[in-house]
Design brief:
homodimer; about 260 residues; alpha+beta; Arc Repressor Mutant, subunit A; Chorismate lyase; six-stranded antiparallel beta sheet; two-stranded antiparallel ribbon; 10 strands; DNA-binding
Chain lengths: ~260, ~260
DNA sequence: GAGTGGTCTAGACCACGTA
DNA sequence: ACGTGGTCTAGACCACTCG
């Protein structure tokens, strides 16, 4: 537990551990206010900087949040389920599965999204997955999704420019039937997809766009859509704040692995 | 960018931004050493604590790591692909997909795992998913997996105790044919699964077990295995350090959604 | 106006790795 | 032996929110 190189635990780490135990053991209700920095310096008899180091640790763990100048508060997690397979299987495989999902549904929350379309030289990640030729450009539809006015996730869809030029995809408006349908009509139906998911701390840009609190990691979900002949025609980069999402996959009809 | 409540950017935030730009723009090679704290205090003409705050920010973003008392170093990301569907589809759907995966393979790295088996009153998460009666116990196989001696992920498999008592599952040894096979032989074949994935900062316990650097989020992958009648018989809780894993799903044969 | 957290300073001592 | 980062202290001023 954060032992210093000496055989002892730093004072700030002990304070952090104290507070962490109180938070996780449910002593305080969610959203409760913690003692002030002044309270803690008095209680533990240390300098303010030491208390601040303890609190900063908890902030970076995502356990508490500072609402200056009001104080520190216990953070609550209210993730919604997020389903990459959504359109494929709108219904859960079984009522049992549904149970878990009911806890966090978007019922009654008002969705909204902003859309920007532009032509770009895409980032290396995307370029590789789209198998773009050197210097070849892509169209990107950048969306930020909101729920009740709060940013929920971002969704940047990249298409090889040559495939979508002069299609509806280039217009910054909702596409009721979906961009995939448009792409299919243009002769590029997607029949397979590769989902890649990894997690990291957000960039300052992402913190800004998604209004992320410190200590909030993001999941990066990259979906590559392929035509029957294996040509990639679409790469979607989703940024999912960890405090707002649970990604769900349902699998069935096969022997299931352990890992 | 970390503006203070005044209309200015904090000095530490500017220093962090400077360094961040240098790191992400590839000015320095990966694993390069940053200037020392003393260098930076001199360069920017500020107190050491200010420089340390900038560096701490980058550490928490996962961009750099401190190897005291040697200095700060740029962090490298070398994730391996992790496939929940592994046994289902050992081969990628197409050579195109394989391309992305070749970059990070476990070739030539020596895998090892530790196994502990115990009987526990499982955490609430697990209890709910296993639909355990009040006070009902579970067997848990806790595994830590290593690659070349370094911890890679943890895998805790929970089973209702009544189903697995007196089976091979209770012995802390490798099960060559897999715990699922044992469960199937006992009359509980799994035909469906629900995967839930979310991301958060690790607990101190996880930091210890997985030897995580600061600024490393984890993905929590919970797999619930169900019998044909919908009874959950197994819940697996995987903890996947973000700097070591990319989770991969392949989907095919269906219309694919955008989200 | 009182109290909060955010920022910044100028010191100090320590353990540890490396040269 | 030296330089490194880790820890801790004792101050200071500020902007903001709330009563």
């Amino acid at each position: 537990m954060a032992a210093t190189r000496q055989n002892r635990v730093a004072v700030w780490a002990q304070i952090a551990e104290d507070l962490r135990a109180q938070i996780t053991d449910g002593t305080h209700p969610a959203d409760a206010q913690l003692p002030t920095e002044a309270d803690l310096t008095a209680k533990y008899g240390v300098a303010r900087a030491t208390v601040r180091q303890a609190l900063a640790a908890l902030v970076n763990e995502g356990l508490i949040v500072s609402r200056a100048p009001r104080g520190y508060f216990i953070r609550l997690r209210k993730p919604l389920y997020y389903r990459p397979q959504q359109e494929f299987r709108p219904q859960p495989l079984s009522p049992e599965m549904d149970r878990f999902m009911m806890d966090h549904s978007a019922d009654g929350r008002e969705p909204r999204q902003t859309i920007e379309v532009s032509i770009v030289d895409p980032p290396e990640d995307v370029k590789k997955r789209l198998k773009l030729a050197d210097g070849e450009l892509a169209a990107v539809r950048r969306r930020i999704r909101y729920l009740d006015g709060e940013p929920f996730n971002t969704n940047d869809s990249y298409f090889p420019l040559r495939l979508v030029q002069d299609t509806e995809i280039m217009r910054p408006a909702d596409i009721a039937r979906g961009a995939n349908e448009v792409l299919a009509e243009a002769g590029y139906p997607q029949v397979r997809a590769l989902d890649e998911i990894y997690t990291r701390m957000p960039t300052p840009e992402e913190i800004r766009r998604l209004d992320l609190a410190p200590g909030t990691p993001v999941a990066c979900h990259i979906c590559t859509g392929l035509c029957p002949d294996g040509t990639p025609v679409r790469v979607v980069m989703n940024i999912l704040p960890g405090d707002r999402h649970v990604i769900v996959y349902e699998r069935g009809g096969i022997d299931l692995d352990e890992k």
